[in-house]
C-alpha cells in the first residue's frame, strides 16, 4: 500500500511574488565556462561575435533570467580594466583562484553585450579581495555612466556609447573563506564593503547591492559573520548572499534526497540573523537573500581542490561534474525550497551555466547538450509564475543521517491569474499518494513533467544524457478537474511538475 500525504492548497494563502531573478545562473572564468562554453570563435554555431549560438539557444530554453559574472573566486584577483579595449592589446594573467592563464579575450563589454543580445539581465561582481573602493566605483561608472566622465568615456571609446544600466552588484565573493584571495575577517570586510557600496551608489544611486554572507552553513563563523557584516553595511546594501552545494556522500542516498531540508534551514537561519540586526537597530528595513550559488556539486568526492590544480592554460577541464537522474530530482527539490521562500529570496543563481557543474555541456568544436539537471530547472522556470502559494504539507517522514527526520514529501505551488503550477517531490523509496486539499476551489491539472531517480552512475557525453532523459524524464497527465480534493500518486524518489488552473467554485 502506498504511503499517504496531504497538501493543503488555497489561493488566499500566499508566500510572496516570484521575482524572475530566482531563475538566474552564473558564468565564471573557470574551466570551460567561458572559453568553449558560451564563447568559441570558429565553432560551427558561433555568431559574428564568437559566441556559441547552440549554447545561447539552450540557455534560452533553460529559462535563465539573469547571469552572474565574472566570479566567483575568480573575481578576487581580477583587474577588469585589463579586459576592456582592443583585444589584441590585452595581456594574459595568472588567475590565482583556479590556477589558469586567463587570456582576457572575453571581458566586461563582451559579456554584457552577449547578455543584452540574449535578453539576459547581468549581475556583476566587484573585486574586494585584492582591490577596493576606487576600482569598484570605476567599474560602475564604466558600465552605467553617461558621457563626460573618465570611465564612461573609456567605454564609449571602446565602442559602446549607451550605458549598460547594470542593476545588481555583488560586493566581492565568499570573503569569509580562507581560500579566497584577499580573505578578510567579518569586521574588516564589513567596513570595506560599506565604503565600496557607498562609493558605488554615489556613482549610480539606482543600483542594488549584495553583501557577502557565509559561503556555507558549516563555516565556523556562520551567523556571527552575517551579523557583523550587516551591522557595517545595513544602510548601504539590499541583499545578503548565500552559497550552498549538495552531494551524495558515502552512498547516503537518503541524506542526499533530504538536501532541500538543509537548504530550508540555512535560509531560515540567515533570515533570523538579518532580522536580529534589524531588531537591534530598531529598523523596519528587510534584508533579502541573494542565493547566488547553489547546485549539486561533488565537491568532497570528485574535486581535487584548487591547491592541487597544476598551472594550466587554454580552458582546462575543471569541475565538469556529470549528473544522474537522482541529481536532477534533488535539484528539483531545491527549487521547491526556493519557491517556498519567495518572500525573502528574490535572487538565486544555479552555479554554473555551462560545463562547470552545469546543466549544459559542450564539446569544443562539437555539440552542446542537456544534462539531466537541465529538465527540472527549465520546467520550473517555465511554469512558476506570479505568486508562490503558502502550502501546508503533512505526511510521512524519513530518517537521514545528516539532517535527522525530514519530510518524505515536499511541495510548492504558484498562481498567476487562474494559472497554477504544482511541484511535488517524493524523497522516499516507496510510492506516495498525495491528496491535494483545495476547499471551495476547483483544481484542474494538465500534462506535466516527471523526473524519477536512477541507480546507475552518471557517464559523460550527449548519448548518455539523452538516454537518461529518455528513461527518467517523462510527460505525465494530471488528474481530472475536481472541487475540494485531488489525488496525485508520486513515483518513488521523484520530482513532478503539473500545470493547470485554479478557480473558485
UniProtKB/TrEMBL annotation:
Family in the record: Belongs to the glycosyl hydrolase 51 family.
Top-level lineage group: Bacteria
Species name: Cellulomonas terrae
Leader peptide range in chain numbering: none
Enzyme Commission code: 3.2.1.55
Keywords, comma-separated and alphabetical: Carbohydrate metabolism, Glycosidase, Hydrolase
Subunit-level organization: Homohexamer; trimer of dimers.
Catalytic activity field: Hydrolysis of terminal non-reducing alpha-L-arabinofuranoside residues in alpha-L-arabinosides
A GO molecular-function descriptor: alpha-L-arabinofuranosidase activity
Domain Alpha-L-arabinofuranosidase C-terminal: start-end pairs: 292-494
Name of the protein: non-reducing end alpha-L-arabinofuranosidase
GO biological process, alphabetically ordered: L-arabinose metabolic process; polysaccharide catabolic process
Amino acid at each position: 500500500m502506498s504511503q499517504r500525504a496531504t497538501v493543503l492548497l488555497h489561493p488566499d494563502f500566499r508566500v510572496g511574488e516570484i521575482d524572475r531573478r530566482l531563475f538566474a545562473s552564473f558564468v565564471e572564468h573557470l574551466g570551460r565556462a567561458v572559453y568553449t562554453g558560451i564563447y568559441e570563435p570558429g565553432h560551427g554555431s558561433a555568431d559574428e561575435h564568437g559566441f556559441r549560438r547552440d549554447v545561447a539557444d539552450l540557455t534560452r530554453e533553460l529559462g535563465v533570467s539573469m547571469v552572474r559574472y565574472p566570479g566567483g573566486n575568480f573575481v578576487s584577483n581580477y583587474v577588469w580594466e585589463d579586459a576592456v579595449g582592443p583585444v589584441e592589446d590585452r595581456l594574459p594573467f595568472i588567475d590565482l583562484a583556479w590556477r589558469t592563464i586567463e587570456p582576457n579575450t572575453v571581458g566586461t563589454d563582451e559579456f554584457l553585450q552577449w547578455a543584452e543580445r540574449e535578453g539576459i539581465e547581468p549581475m556583476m561582481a566587484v573585486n574586494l579581495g585584492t582591490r577596493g573602493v576606487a576600482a569598484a566605483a570605476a567599474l560602475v561608472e564604466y558600465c552605467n555612466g553617461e558621457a563626460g566622465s573618465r570611465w564612461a568615456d573609456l567605454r564609449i571609446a571602446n565602442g559602446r556609447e549607451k550605458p549598460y544600466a547594470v542593476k545588481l552588484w555583488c560586493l566581492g565573493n565568499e570573503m569569509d573563506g580562507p581560500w579566497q584571495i584577499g580573505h578578510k575577517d567579518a569586521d574588516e570586510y564589513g567596513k570595506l564593503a560599506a565604503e565600496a557600496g557607498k562609493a558605488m551608489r554615489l556613482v549610480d544611486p539606482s543600483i542594488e547591492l549584495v553583501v557577502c554572507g557565509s559561503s556555507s552553513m558549516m563555516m565556523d563563523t556562520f551567523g556571527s559573520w552575517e551579523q557583523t557584516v550587516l551591522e557595517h553595511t545595513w544602510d548601504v546594501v539590499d541583499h545578503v548572499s548565500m552559497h550552498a552545494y549538495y552531494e551524495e556522500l558515502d552512498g547516503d542516498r537518503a541524506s542526499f534526497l533530504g538536501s532541500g531540508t538543509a537548504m530550508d534551514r540555512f535560509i531560515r537561519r540567515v533570515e533570523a540573523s538579518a532580522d536580529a540586526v534589524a531588531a537591534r537597530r530598531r529598523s523596519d528595513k528587510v534584508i533579502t537573500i541573494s542565493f547566488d550559488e547553489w547546485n549539486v556539486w561533488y565537491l568532497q568526492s570528485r574535486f581535487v581542490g584548487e591547491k592541487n590544480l597544476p598551472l594550466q592554460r587554454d580552458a582546462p577541464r575543471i569541475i565538469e561534474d556529470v549528473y544522474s537522474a537522482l541529481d536532477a530530482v534533488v535539484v528539483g527539490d531545491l527549487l521547491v525550497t526556493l519557491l517556498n521562500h519567495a518572500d525573502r529570496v528574490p535572487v538565486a543563481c544555479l552555479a554554473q551555466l555551462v560545463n562547470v557543474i552545469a546543466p549544459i555541456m559542450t564539446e569544443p568544436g562539437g555539440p552542446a547538450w542537456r544534462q539531466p539537471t537541465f529538465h527540472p530547472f527549465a520546467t520550473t522556470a517555465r511554469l512558476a509564475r506570479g505568486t508562490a502559494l503558502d502550502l501546508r504539507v503533512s505526511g510521512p517522514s524519513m530518517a537521514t543521517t545528516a539532517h535527522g527526520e525530514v519530510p518524505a514529501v515536499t511541495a510548492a505551488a504558484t498562481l498567476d491569474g487562474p494559472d497554477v503550477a504544482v511541484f511535488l517531490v517524493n524523497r522516499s523509496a516507496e510510492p506516495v499518494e498525495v491528496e491535494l486539499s483545495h476547499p471551495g476551489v476547483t483544481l484542474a491539472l494538465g500534462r506535466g513533467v516527471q523526473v524519477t531517480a536512477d541507480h546507475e552512475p552518471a557517464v559523460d557525453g550527449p548519448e548518455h544524457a539523452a538516454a537518461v532523459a529518455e528513461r527518467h524524464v517523462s510527460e505525465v497527465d494530471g488528474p481530472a478537474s475536481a472541487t475540494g480534493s485531488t489525488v496525485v500518486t508520486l513515483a518513488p524518489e521523484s520530482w513532478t511538475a503539473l500545470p493547470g488552473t485554479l478557480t473558485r467554485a
